[in-house]
Amino acid sequence: MNSAVIGFPRIGKNRELKFATEKYFRKEISKEELIITAKEIRKENLLCQKETGIDYISVNDFSFYDNFLDLAFSFNIIPERYKKLSLNKMDTYFAMARGFEDETRSVKALAMKKWFNTNYHYIVAEIEDDTCISLDSEKYLEEIQFANSLGITPKFNLIGPYTFFKLVRFTGEKGLESFYEPVLKAYLDLIEELKSQDISYLSLEEPALVADLTSEDKDLFENIYTRLLANKDKLKVLLQTYFGDVRDIYVDLLKYDFDAYGLDFVEGVKTFDYVKNYGFPKNKTLFAGIVNGKNIWKNNYKTSLELITNLHKITEAKIVINTSCSLLHVPLTLESETDLAFEYKRHFAFAYEKLKELAELKNLSELVLKENADLDLALTNLNSVLNKKDIFVYNQSLFNGRVNSVNPKVKERLANIKEEDFTRLPEFNERAKIQREVLNLPDFPTTTIGSFPQTKEVRENRKLYRQGLINEETYKNFIKEKIKDCIKLQEELDLDVLVHGEFERNDMVEYFGEHLDGYIFTKNAWVQSYGSRCVKPPIIWGDVSRKEAITVDWSSYSNSLTNREVKGMLTGPVTILNWSFPREDITKEEMTNQLALAIRDEVLDLEAAGLKIIQIDEAALREKLPLRKSDWYSEYLDWAIKSFRLVTSGVKPETQIHTHMCYSEFNDIIPAIDAMDADVISFEASRSDLVILDALRKNNFKTAVGPGVYDIHSPRVPSTDEIFNALKKMLSKLDSKKLWVNPDCGLKTRGEKETVESLRNLVAAAKLLRETE
Ligand code: GLN
Ligand code: ZN
Quick one: which residues bind L-homocysteine (predicted)? Predict the structure, then answer.
């Protein structure tokens, strides 16, 4: 029995990589210093896996920004606009990731998208008609040799060509047909180089196989892999899948000359059935994804050992106990959680602890498989071998009895929800008329998505408050000052609908979690979201309910400072769920409805406090859409959309409900988004060429829209002209009475100077539009 890890978090125990890259961006450290920090993290990662006894440790799971970008970059898939900057290699790479600006030049970043159903974002590489693909394997070989120098023969990870073709963007006339050969050749060149390297496997990651596959998809896969595998010689190749099962292609896959297959037994609800029904070849190796790479609950060893014994009965193949996906999606270690009570902590496993689970499962399954008999007998024997106190018994003690806490009041309220609680009345058009009169906003109203720059000062004050070094009053007064300045600034900028700026929030989900019963929090459990950005998802521990009003004081204070409208600012239930680590004992639907009731109470309180506009962010709604289209409604949207409606159905007709979504990639679910029945929606659009607008028109989208007019992920300041042109383009496709003007997303991560300049240009562009239309 062996163990493996698909990938390891690369941010470092104290987010060293984040801080170093950001320093590098600010030109505070040199490239060499950044590389040293990265190398230290890589070393620590490799050694801790080695020390825990992991047999197949990965390299090339590291990245300075993103692995998809790394792959494109190594194939020289670098759009002309970045090459033209004539920067050094690393700065060209970062320019693609985050845009570039100096006195004379200004180039936007490449688009960024969610990596399958996770909250990690990859950079969408672009192939232009004259892109000349060629391999630069420097990073790859360096990582392999570095592992070798630590006494490790690593598994070399690479995003596979099928997934690459599915995700890359062709920006010119030429498409897949033109670039199929050159891309494949780059892979083949790399395979050639890997043959002389000291690695255990080339692991080609093909998560795109877990979606619904068409016959063209399967043909593409076949063409690619027939070629690649014919050239592998003695190089061992693992086909690594994750984020679900490969039901559409499982049987075919087995015919290929892979040496090993990595299958996901956690999210892959049908993986076991397929292996059982169609078998698994005995001369291949099965990397069985058993330890959950996405959630933080301890592995139930009994269930895992059962699975392993069952697999063992089905196939004589060698089994490797694997993570279900990269551990990139969980925090690094529980060791840093010094404030979290043992009562909670003992139920969790972060990346380091998962290594231990892999090692323990490996030992346990070796003992169990020796019995080769039924599991119960083996486990009984195991108990006596290991004696009571030992690993297995302890693990089982965690699962005996209820883990999560239950609140009967919440359960009762949920049980009493009626069908009409999901519908807001009067219907949209009638409400729109009333709101137009009451709010009296100009055409193309300008607004922001909610947060204003969280400066060092803001973060430091919060830290001091949390550490008890300043008292509540001092802290609150500080926030009030910030709000006052923020409102004043927005008045000066002449924005129409103001926000309070969200200075009191560390994070749009954690903040709400902290005010809800049923949540627990970590101190240092960061997970990479994109590049140097990390998030710290809270944990749903029990039934959720609102302890007291959450945002009402801040919002009514802001409202009292101005005659303009202030938007109340909340996070919606689906997003709170999607950005938390969920329970595993009740359904997502039930957890979401609990959250919806809590936020509903907050909405009604805001309305009662005089807020006429309330935004309920569903930034992450799109994110957890099942990867199989065939599951979209039945497994997700049916209840997710309803739960949003449950939040808003109690408000008065004149109260305007806004929602916001990050990423406009919802072309295929436009009717569902419209069915949320919000009055206004803002979403990211500037990085995706406004393609969504055609789809909105085609679907007769009723909700008023604010497609983001500039990218907030980049420090670049958009000019008035640029925004004006974007708006003109929008107007050519949308009803002018329904167009709002706003940035792509919250401004929290931006600097103050660029924010003010950008917003000034935004307002100017909207005014220009009012004059010309
Ligand atoms: N209201 C939030 C903000 O402005 C929305 C953030 C988001 O969509 N990710 O920060
Ligand atoms: Zn957003």
Answer: 449-451, 502, 617
Instruction: Choose one of 447, 498, 502 to mutate for the ligand 1 pocket test, by most ligand atoms within 8 angstroms of C-beta.
Output: 502
- At residue 686 the predicted structure's pLDDT band, cuts being 50, 70 and 90, is confident
Catalytic (active site) residue 658 = no
Beta bridge partners of 4: 56
Q: Is 662 annotated as a binding residue?
A: yes
How far does the centroid of ligand 1 lie from the alpha carbon of residue 707, in Å? Answer: 14
Within 10 angstroms of residue 645's Cβ, the number of other Cβ atoms is 17
Residues in the chain: 773
Strand, helix or coil at 672? Answer: helix
Q: Which residues of 646-678 are buried (b: 16+ CB within 10 A; e: fewer)?
A: bbbbebebebbbbbbbbbbbbeebbebbbbbbb
ipTM of the complex: 0.99
Tell whether residue 89 is among the known ligand binding residues.
no
Q: Rounded to a whole number, what is the distance in angstroms from the first to the last CA of the chain?
A: 71
User: What is the Å distance from ligand 2's center to 574 Cα?
Assistant: 14
Closest residue CA from atom 9 of ligand 1? 619
Average pLDDT over residues 693-718: 93
Distances 42 to 38, 156, 358, 525 between C-alpha atoms, Å: 6, 14, 20, 19
Which residues contact ligand 1 via a Cβ below 6 A?
449-451, 502, 508, 569, 617, 619, 660, 662, 745-746, 748
Indicate the pTM of the whole model.
0.91
Encode pLDDT of 204-254 as tens digits.
Answer: 999 999 999 999 999 999 999 999 999 999 999 999 999 999 999 999 999
- Ligand 1 pocket check: which of 748, 755, 759 to mutate, most ligand atoms within 8 Å of Cβ? 748
Contacts made by residues 727-734, CB under 8 angstroms, sequence distance 24+: 727/444, 727/765, 727/766, 727/769, 728/769, 729/690, 729/693, 730/690, 730/693, 731/769, 731/773, 733/690, 733/693, 733/694, 733/696, 733/697, 734/693, 734/696, 734/697, 734/705
- Ligand nearest 448 Cα, by number? 1
pLDDT at 691: 80
| Distance, CA of 67 to CA of 230 (rounded, Å) | 26
Determine which residue's CA is closest to atom 6 belonging to ligand 1. Answer: 746
Cβ-Cβ contacts under 8 Å for 441 (sequence gap 6 or more): 496, 497, 565
460 is known to lie in a ligand binding site: no
Pocket test for ligand 1, best of 575, 745, 748, 749 (most atoms within 8 A of CB): 745
- Close Cβ partners of 573 (under 8 Å, ≥ 6 residues apart): 592, 593, 595, 596, 598, 599, 643, 644, 646, 647
Distances (CA, A) of 6 to 241, 451, 664: 10, 36, 30
Nearest to 551 by CA among 485, 617, 489, 496: 617
Distances (CA, A) of 452 to 500, 600, 752: 8, 25, 8
> 16: annotated binding-site residue?
yes
Sign of CA dihedral 59, 64, 67, 70: negative
